[in-house]
Design brief:
The protein has 969 residues and is mainly alpha-helical. Among the domains are: 9-115, no CATH class; 164-200 and 864-969, Serine Threonine Protein Phosphatase 5, Tetratricopeptide repeat; 215-400, Rossmann fold, CATH 3.40.50; 406-437 and 439-490. Helices cover 48% and strands 6% of the residues. The protein is built from 35 helices and twelve strands. The strands form three sheets. It has a six-stranded parallel sheet with strand order 4-6-7-8-5-9, with helices on both faces. Strand 2 (25-28), helix 1 (45-48) and strand 3 form a beta-alpha-beta unit. The chain is globular and about 95 Å long. Residues 492-580 form the DUF7779 domain. GO terms for molecular function: ADP binding. This is Tetratricopeptide repeat protein.
């Protein structure tokens, strides 16, 4: 059977002559249908200089390839082969220290499968003219190969572009409403790069979702009556970002992007807001995304997924999944599903939606890499960093905003002060000029004039009196910007604020500037504004009114939310002394902790530190909305941590508890890494602490890290963390002579590690002790600990005991929660273990039924895109292969792989195992070419995981089972 011939090549984009021998290599791999790497900004000297080490001496290569999806039909093997081709090119490039060096025949060989080395008597430029070569090794065979390939072209093309098998619905099989959304994750380093699109899910014939279009998620829907000028900027944005009205031109156009750059307060956000409001009807969808933190990007992308109808609220569990789904739709923004297995035809402008995505406050543009869309939509970025104009594009697209023109500045000043144009016009011009045309400065000063009921002459006299401002702050907007050098002491007169308003503004400066719930703000300000007397709501309202009148904050009455400009926060913080910052930090930490619904159970030892709003909410999705509202404020105070001096020991440890809980919340929402540095900070605090609650918290941190490592198949790291957590908890309980929920968790988690290490007797003992502890606490309901214990019993051949345990556990949950409860995934884990037990007993029909029940339960609890669901899909595929239902098996395998490739670096082990199963299915149906490719992928990944280089013929199902967590087998 003929092999597939990849068509990629590795081309040098940058070859520095004076590069050091130990330098940086950068390989650019474009996604399907994206711009060529030559248009990307990574060869820019300025960008390269930001890399650590000798970035300016980097070699830059681009991998170019023909799209495997160019025709009407395609096969996933073509993508796989391109991946192999890329790896081979990288291997070749790495093995060639000098590109001009002559090599012998042996060195020329890439040793690729079915490779034949051809020797031609031609120079490099004439290589393609092989017929002109006289003599030469292998030339006759090469000509024969070309002749036969052309002669059999029709057959070969039909073979290589064979359609994927379609799933035939069965009586138990629910419709799969997941669509294949390609991933173009940009920054996660993984050896799986190039395989993101390998596993397309089979589309169902039943229409499950209707996209909600038009869809507008804007920062505000109302008109900003104070917006003035900037018409030239808005016209520039329209020319750059509006979709073409020509249907032919609109189809297949490249991504349109534009960046507004400039210092804080110059009007970037307001211009973007006005553009989105004014032109939103030109798009089918407009999305406003606050882009200053990864957590906010994740939150907004999940909201987009829900607003469009790409996910159901009941299934929207993982923010990582939501992000990839949204990026997939942006890359192929079809308007509707049809009754057939296909969408409307790709590339038809009538069927594709037009969209505008606004990244606001992207002051670190590089964090947008994981969220950057593809396709033919429009992207608008606002950022203080000029790099935003060059991000992900070869040609800079954007502009640096300058101050308002003199006329626009004066018009805005008159409008905001409500002083008629022409009234004391000379003084008005002097004030307007003095404020430098900065919109935020004009807005704030107009607020002062209104609040203090000053005439223009009175204000200008005060403004020009330098002694009046002698004690004010001298922080600059940006000392590097020649366009605005006025100190903020000449812009904001904070000393004119009432004391309570000043205190409230200081408090606001420690919270996330975009969304501050007034219930939280009022709670935090109660002690601050009471001044020793009983706090009254009117204290808060008076202070808020003072700030609103000065235009220092903004309020959304309907949502009961406050927002503030970042520049205002910066100025207030710069003016606060270290002791005041410390007191405010302490207050914020305690308020946030008091409102946080904790995932962890009550500590075994009664804590000295304050307790959170609630405890023991681990895996409970009902607490997620509260956590989502508080999380941005945790991010904000974490930014301050290194600048706060002499923090009291109790505040330090309470802050570490808050960070640990917030990081675990992100784990529940789908993250497997990059927890905003929370765990590192929390561990650092604990390691230097002598507080009596320190060991309890450190045990929680190790528990979290152990569970996260286990999910990512990092079993060695998981074991170390779980052992440390157990040692700390058992030490506390032994000293007190008590036990509790924490001790149960410690035994259960250590038992899991021991089962994974094949120490089945020890794992059994740990889990039985864990269950004894939990039963002694009362109100016993079986959980996942029983399912994990069953795996230890099953591995030791204790089938009767395993059977009794699982059936009793299932009955216990049904009695307490009802049959097929939706409380959590725990019932599904018991059903899954029962299915495996019945398979061991050769009771295949019962095994299949239990696994189907587990699959339905996973869908109903954690959702169709969770890794628990993927595990059961793999197991069901094994059943279907056994029954000879190969097409359904392949569809389920594709479904599982689609889930895991959302975070391929964390789930490499599962991908390897399921790809091997896919090869077995193809082999059983005689599709040897497909089987060969799947086996090679699976074996390569297994080699990377285990460092064992074994031939595929020697590997079995058990060899791949052992590289995944035992509860996934």
């Amino acid at each position: 059977m003929a092999s597939f011939a990849p068509s990629g090549c590795l081309r040098v984009l940058r070859y520095p002559l004076d590069a050091p021998q130990e330098g940086v290599d950068i390989v650019l791999v474009p996604g399907i249908g994206t711009a060529l790497p030559e248009s990307w900004p990574f060869a820019n000297e300025e960008w390269l200089s930001t890399l650590p080490g000798s970035g300016v001496g980097a070699y830059i290569f681009a991998y170019e390839y023909a799209s495997p999806f160019a025709g009407a039909n395609y096969s996933w093997e073509s993508v796989l082969m391109l991946g192999y081709d890329l790896l081979q090119h990288l291997s070749d490039a790495r093995s060639q220290p000098d590109p001009d060096m002559l090599v012998d025949r042996e060195t020329c060989s890439t040793r690729a499968p079915m490779e034949t080395v051809i020797g031609l008597n031609l120079n490099h430029h004439d290589t393609c003219l092989f017929t002109q070569s006289v003599g030469g090794e292998g030339l006759r065979e090469f000509k024969n190969f070309i002749h036969e390939s052309l002669h059999n072209a029709v057959h070969l093309v039909a073979l290589r572009l064979e359609d994927l098998e379609q799933l035939e619905p069965t009586e138990w099989w629910p419709s799969n409403n997941a669509t294949q959304w390609p991933s173009n994750r940009a920054t996660e380093g993984t050896s799986l790069s190039g395989f993101e699109l390998v596993y397309p899910a089979t589309l169902d014939t039943e229409v499950k979702k209707i996209l909600h279009l038009p869809c507008f998620l804007l920062n505000t829907q109302s008109t900003n009556e104070d917006f003035c000028g900037r018409e030239d900027i808005l016209e520039t944005l329209a020319a750059a970002l509006l979709p073409s009205k020509n249907l032919v031109a609109a189809s297949g156009t490249a991504l349109r992007q534009f960046a507004l750059c400039g210092f804080g307060g110059i009007g970037k956000t307001e211009i973007a807001r006005e553009f989105s409001r004014r032109y939103k009807t030109s798009f089918d969808a407009v999305f406003w995304v606050v882009a200053d933190e990864i957590a906010k990007l994740d939150h907004h992308y999940q909201q987009i997924s829900l607003a469009l109808g790409l996910e159901d609220p009941s299934e929207c569990k993982s923010q990582v999944v939501s992000r990839e789904i949204v990026k997939g739709w942006l890359s192929n923004p079809r308007k509707q599903f049809l009754d057939s297995d296909e969408f409307t035809q790709t590339g038809s402008s009538k069927s594709e939606a037009t969209w505008l995505l606004i990244f606001d406050n992207a002051d670190d543009p590089m964090i947008l890499a994981d969220y950057w869309p593809q396709g033919s939509g429009s992207v608008l970025v606002t950022s203080r960093d000029p790099l935003a104009k060059r991000i992900f594009t070869r040609n800079p697209s954007g502009l640096d905003l300058g101050p308002l023109s003199q006329q626009d500045s004066l018009s805005l000043f008159h409008h905001l002060t409500t002083i008629p144009n022409g009234s004391d016009s000379k003084t008005a011009e002097q004030i307007s000029d003095a404020l430098g045309g900065v919109p935020l400065a004009i807005s704030q000063m107009a607020g002062i004039i209104r609040r203090q009921d000053l005439t223009l002459s009175e204000f200008f006299e005060l403004y020009m009196d330098h002694e009046e401002h002698a004690s004010l702050y001298e922080t600059k907007f940006d000392i590097n910007l020649a366009s605005y050098r006025h100190s903020l002491s000449t812009v904001w007169a904070f000393e004119k604020l009432k004391p309570q308003a000043r205190h409230l503004l200081e408090l606001i400066s420690f919270l996330d500037p975009d969304v501050i719930g007034e219930d939280l703000l009022m709670e935090a300000s109660a002690e601050l504004l009471s001044e020793g007397t009983k706090f009254k709501r009117s204290n808060y309202i008076d202070a808020r009114t003072d700030l609103l009148q000065s235009s220092l904050i903004q309020r959304d009455k309907q949502k009961q939310q406050i927002s503030v400009h970042r520049v205002v926060q910066d100025v207030i913080l710069a003016s606060m002394c270290d002791n005041k910052k410390k007191c405010m930090f302490d207050r914020i930490v305690r308020i946030l902790w008091a409102e946080w619904p904790s995932a962890m159970p009550q500590p075994s030892k009664k804590p000295e530190l304050p307790q959170p709003k609630s405890t023991d909410g681990r895996l409970h999705v009902g607490r997620w909305p509260i956590c989502a509202a508080i999380y941005p404020h945790v991010l904000k105070i974490h930014q301050f941590w290194s600048t706060i001096l002499d923090v009291p020991e109790s505040t330090r440890l309470l802050f570490a508890k808050l960070l640990t809980e917030a990081a675990w919340y992100q784990k529940e929402r789908g993250r497997t890494k990059q927890f905003d540095g929370f765990f590192e900070t929390a561990r650092g605090i604990c390691e230097s602490s002598t507080h009596t609650d320190r060991d309890s918290l450190l045990a929680d941190i190790y528990f979290c890290l152990g569970a996260i490592a286990m999910d990512a198949s990092d079993f060695d790291t998981s074991r170390v963390h779980k052992e440390r957590s157990f040692e700390l908890v058992s030490k506390i309980c032994n000293e007190l002579g008590t036990s509790g929920e924490r001790l149960y968790l410690a035994y259960a988690e250590r038992g899991i590690s021991r089962i994974q290490d094949r120490r089945y007797e020890e794992g059994e003992a740990d889990l039985k002790e864990a269950l004894r502890v939990r039963r002694a606490l009362g109100n016993y309901i079986p959980r996942s600990g029983e399912a994990n214990l069953s795996w230890a019993l099953l591995a030791q051949g204790k089938l009767e005991e395993c059977n009794t345990l699982l059936l009793d556990s299932l009955a216990g949950r049904e009695q307490a929660l009802g049959k097929n409860d939706k409380e959590s995934v725990r019932t599904g884990l018991i059903l899954y273990a029962l299915g495996n037990l019945r398979a061991t007993q050769n009771q295949w029909d019962e095994s299949f039924e239990y696994h189907k029940r587990a699959w339905h339960h996973m869908h109903a609890t954690v959702g169709e895109r969770d890794f628990y669901t993927a595990n059961v899909a793999h197991k069901l595929a094994e059943h279907l292969m056994r029954l000879g239902r190969s097409e359904e098996a392949v569809a389920l395998i594709n479904n599982a792989l689609e889930i895991w490739t959302i975070d391929s670096s964390a789930h490499k082990n599962e991908i390897s195992r399921t790809t091997f199963l896919k090869g077995k299915v193809f082999e059983s149906t005689g599709k040897m070419q497909k089987a060969s490719i799947a086996f090679r992928v699976a074996c390569r990944l297994r080699k990377e995981i285990t460092n064992e280089d074994r031939d595929v013929k020697s590997l079995t199902k058990e060899d791949f089972d052992e590289i995944v967590a035992f509860w996934a087998r």
